[in-house]
Amino acid sequence: MSVIEVEDLRKRYGDREVVRGIDLTVEAGQVVAVLGPNGAGKTTTVEILEGLTERSGGQVRVLGVDPARADSAWRERVGVVLQHVAVEPYLTVRELLDLHRGFYRHPRPTDELLALVGLTEEAGAQVRTLSGGQVRRVDVALALVGAPELVFLDEPTTGFDPAARHQAWDAIRALKDLGTTIVLTTHYLEEAETLADRIVVLADGRIVADGPPGSLGDRHRAASRVSFHALEGVTPDELPVPVEVEGRRWTARCADPTVSLHALTAWAIERDLRLSGLTIAPPSLEEIYLEAVR
Amino acid sequence: MTVIVWPGRAFRYEQRSFWREPAGKFFTVALPVLMLTVFGGLNGDSRIHELGGIRFSRYMTVGMVAFSLVTTTYGMLSARVTFRRESGIYQRLRTTPLPAGAFVAGQVLNALSVVALTIAILLVVGTTFYDGTWPTNWPLFALVLVVGAASCSAIGMAVSTFVPSGEAIDPVIWGTMMPITFISGMFEYVPPHSTIGRIASLFPVSHLLQALLRAFGLPGATGPLWEHLGVVALWGVVGGAVAVRRFRWAPHR
Asked: Do A72 and B12 touch (CB under 8 A)?
């Protein structure tokens, strides 16, 4: 049985339909990143799956249960990190975890939770004295108290500095290694690329792309980019392959990069030119994403 | 889990959170005691002729018991509920297995424990320094406190549902609580048949005070006891119905 099964999910606010027919199946142990511009319906969709928002139409099963009828037993199995961090400011991290452990039948040990999110040293500190990134990790630890099979993370690293983001990623990877199914929404493409087995792109309430990061939107078959620093004393139309000028770099889109690269380097060697900063790469996830949500 | 364990856990959570916050402690526990010492100290020796010449500070002790009941179960409870709901803490708790009923029970039990403590302090301070008396009818005293606390809690929970931000709740609470407690005779004796007394009788607070005066064996209450308790309870039932109907976990943003 799949962990999440969604069929023709719809959500209307008044006249405005913000989720317009989503079909989605998530298998156990998968890490799924949901991407999309603001207003695409990411948070609404996730909140319906979490049992916090009622849907207007469609079928939803999460761990075999309709989340609109979620009970305590179901909530034991599902961990949630909401988009807005909200944690009791005056309690210490350890107190907060201990109090939340009281809400579960088989809670994880507090020290294990602290280690999982890297807050062992901050256990005795009141939440209000922590940095934004640390509070977010407290929030993540609260979601993991019940050792859930499924975890939802709504923009878990928004506003983090790069070091805090990498720490959060480590925590999410540790969770994945425990076999947890994870659904996360994010605005950061590199976050999706590094964490997810699968990326779902939402735009305007619909899924517009769905696949592993490496082959999303036929990325693996799309033209590669051969790119190098602009050449002095040469105009782009003298080159043997067509290039696009992107600031101080010239980029050729090559359906067969082996042939194009050969032509290009042969041409350069003949003229004793050096192609400095030469790279060859598949299209970036960002290009695929921007194409999908256009 | 049983019906006792869940509210117990929620209560423990609320207790820990409440006693850690600096502002709540002052307004809820210290303020009524401070008012008793200030007003009792200023006017302590004056006597209320309409009430057979009892000392004002004796009357004031009962007034402050009623006042603390209102500030805690109506004021503190609705402020806490609104502020924490709007900050998203309740939505966060909703994602845990804690059932909604247990969660609300935890809030109310917390308010009750705080009001019990405050009243105990008031009675000790009042009887020791301000010519206050202990209740003469303890079962009635307990009954009035239970009905009053339940009713004020329900009204507080109901009012909270109409306030869409944590900043807006304090003016709402103090703007309703201060005039009503004042005209209801908590700081100064208000004859029930005066114009102000008649206006006050529309609200539950003056009935709460009159029922309490009976429990303390003091004069000042008019009309049958059941009428006073009935008005308090009716307000509570209406408040409770509104609160249940409009209850929400999520912030208004």
From this structure: no
Q: How far is the C-alpha of A136 from the C-alpha of B90, rounded, in Å?
A: 17
Of A72, A82, A146, the CB nearest to B92: A82
- Residues A8, A55: Cα–Cα separation, whole Å: 11
- The token pair at A223 is 């033209």
Say how far apart CA B204 and CA B177 lie, in whole Å. 11
What does the domain layout of chain A look like in residue ranges?
A: 2-213, 224-293
C-alpha distances (whole Å) from A84 to each of A13, A113, A278, B172, B178 are: 21, 21, 43, 26, 35
The architecture (CATH level 2) of A2-213 comes to 3-Layer(aba) Sandwich (3.40)
Interface mutation target, options B21, B96, B98, chain A, most CBs of A under 10 Å: B96
Whether the predicted interface score ipTM is above 0.90? no
Residue with tokens 């009430």: B51
Q: Tell me the pLDDT tens digit for each residue of A239-275.
A: 888 888 888 899 888 888 888 889 999 999 998 888 8
pLDDT beneath 70, residues of chain B: 1-3, 44
Q: Nearest residue of A to residue B249 by CA position?
A: A52
CB contact under 8 A, A76 and B98: no
CA A44 to chain centre: 16
Strands B47-48, B54-55: parallel, antiparallel or unpaired by DSSP? antiparallel
pTM equals 0.84
Q: Which two tokens stand for residue B34?
A: 């401070």
Query: At what angle are helices B204-215 and B166-183 packed, to 10 degrees?
Result: 60
Rounded-to-integer distance, Cα A97 and Cα A271, Å:
68
Using a CB-CB cut-off of 8 Å, the residues of chain B touching A48 are none
Q: Select the residue from B4, B6, B13 to test the A interface by mutation, using most A Cβ atoms within 10 A.
A: B13
d(CA B155, CA B174): 14
Which of A77, A88, A126, A138 has the highest number of chain B CBs within 10 A, making it the mutation to test binding with B? A88
> Does the CB of B101 have a partner CB in chain A at under 8 Å?
no
Of A103, A143, A145, the CB nearest to B9: A103
Q: What is residue A108's DSSP assignment?
A: P
